[in-house]
Design a protein that fits this description.
With 75 residues, this protein is α+β, with helices and mostly antiparallel strands. It has three helices and two strands.
Length: 75
């Protein structure tokens, strides 16, 4: 999940990806109500608990982006 999130961040300037160790940051874990790992939060609106297929993660992230956002084009 983390690797795919970072790949999407590299492909699209409007996406950032951070990986947080829940045990190391208990206040942040509590703020996002982390009960299991992985937990993916997209724009503080979409939350995905647990591991999901890559296609589902990409779909959820793309749905959370503004409609005029497109991945950066490679040179």
């Amino acid at each position: 999940m983390a690797s795919l999130a970072h790949q999407m961040a590299l492909a699209c300037a409007q996406i950032t990806a951070d990986v947080i160790e829940a045990n190391e940051f208990p206040r942040l874990s509590q703020a996002y109500n982390v009960m299991n790992a992985p937990k993916t939060v997209v724009n503080d609106r979409v939350e995905i608990a647990g591991a999901v297929p890559e296609r589902q993660l990409v779909s959820e992230v793309l749905c959370a982006l503004p409609s005029d956002t497109t991945p950066d084009e490679s040179p």
